[in-house]
Amino acid sequence: MNWERFVKTCCFLFSLGVFGCIENSWSAIYYVDQNHGYASDLNTGTGEDAPWLTLDHATDIAVAGDTVIVKAGNYIDTDQPDQYTSFNTVNSGSHGLPITFKSEPPLAAVIKSKSLPANTDYYAWAINNRSYITIDAFKFEGGFIFDGGSSNCLLKNSELVYGRVPPADPTLNWGAAIGNSSSCTISNVYVHDMRDSGNHEHNTAAIMVCFNSSNNIIEYCTADAGNGIVYSAFGQKGGNLNGNIWRWNLALNANAAFLGMGSTNNLLYCDDNVFHNNVTLNVKTVVELDHNCRRNIIYNNTAHNITRFLGAGSEVTDTELWNNIVSSFAFSIYGGTKLVFDSSAVTPPDLLKYSDYNLYYLLPDVFARIQWEVFADTLLNWRSITMLDLSSKTESPYFSNINGVTSSDYKRLSYVLDGRGNPYANVMGAFITGQEQIGYTPVDADTIAPIISTVSPGSVLSFNITSINLTVETNEESVCKYSTIGNIAYESMGSTFTTTGNTSHSSTIYGLVNGATYQYFIRCSDVLNNKNTSDYIIDFSVSAQEIAAPSCLRVK
User: Fold this and answer.
1) DSSP H helical segments within 34-140, as ranges?
2) Cα(first)–Cα(last) distance of the chain, in Å?
3) Whole-prediction pTM value?
4) Tens-place pLDDT, residues 114-150
5) For the chain, which terminal residue's Cβ has fewer other Cβ atoms within 10 angstroms, N or C?
6) Domains, the chain, ranges and CATH?
């Protein structure tokens, strides 16, 4: 018997209250380092000088609250009984006490499918029927999945190549996936260089949510479909996919940036899913609701160089759209008629519950097509027929770099308050302030808050000065705020500098009084949302009396 594992498991059961109400105070930090000269699974694993040798051993031992630090190396689970249990943990974590696996340095621990290089039949890592597991900052060569009833699990800050393709069914070509699971999150993950299975149809995706999966979140990810190596950047299949959220993602080079799809037998639906603040570049269809999709909400997305904005099939109803920017219907790799709306089955009253406050720039020749026939050739005709998009616009969005290839290129030069508004954002597009992180950010990127320095005012102002220009500089592009109350969070500061967003920030302060002393507390946030956690303080006063000019004496 493995006594260490037995004791740890007993402690875990105590923490759940199985043997009494005892708080888990046994959380430990373990180390795995296959390249260490003294690495052994017979070690305690609790020190960097005596780490475990294998990740497989760590997944057997770790219990709720434990953290496993995995050092640089190539890790392959050669003992898993099937494709769906690679490095699966023996135990689950619990609320507030997840089991955490973290690569250190980030991306230095590479998790590989055991079936490489011949194929990627086996997942590199598969969490199956477990809860509260966190996987942080790994690189994967092969697929990753939360499956089999998993819940409250998190994959973050990671990079994945190749994906997983079962030889028996090359249509199931996925990179990272959530299947038969709920309340899981994939955050800040970059999926690219997917292997070509020979099948490029709807069931293939860089990041997939499939089969009875609800209330999951896909955020801050970049998914590159490789110009059709897989069909969609972010896919769905199998039905009963409800309440999932895709937000702050970058979708690249796909037939469909976001694909919604019920079950093949049309009995299970994709309902109440939300797509917001995503950027899409170089795709055929931005959102393709293939069939059996109801009450999907699509807002504050930016799409550039596309063929179609919304494609819909049978049983697609009650879709809502607002605050989207759709620019340049010029993408031609996959061919097809360029359209804003294209429905093969349902008519606008059923398809769209709401569509307004969208910006359509560089419109195609045909605005909408229903059942392969022209329904409305212009936005004006569309409005008159449907009474939709009455407040939508066709002007330039003024992107920072309209020929760019990153999400930040599609920030706007200014943020006009022309969106839907209360209780929604009153700015169109994925970027509302320009400070949002959209798509994957490498985990070794800048994590340092802006450095602030004072330009003006000086410490003592002249008598009868009633207003001054409060001006600071930062060492990087930032948005700065100020308050007359100290030690409050950046988000809680009530006043944003009038001129800000670059490295010079200024606001005019009015109502100054002679003899008074003033103190302003300043914090800034850079483009990666690194915020000052302490105040930069500017003190100044207004002179209490006018200082007389010195007399000029004539000396003989």
Assistant:
1) 55-61
2) 110
3) 0.78
4) 878 777 788 999 999 999 999 999 999 999 999 999 9
5) C
6) 1-168 (no CATH), 235-445 (no CATH), 452-542 (2.60.40)
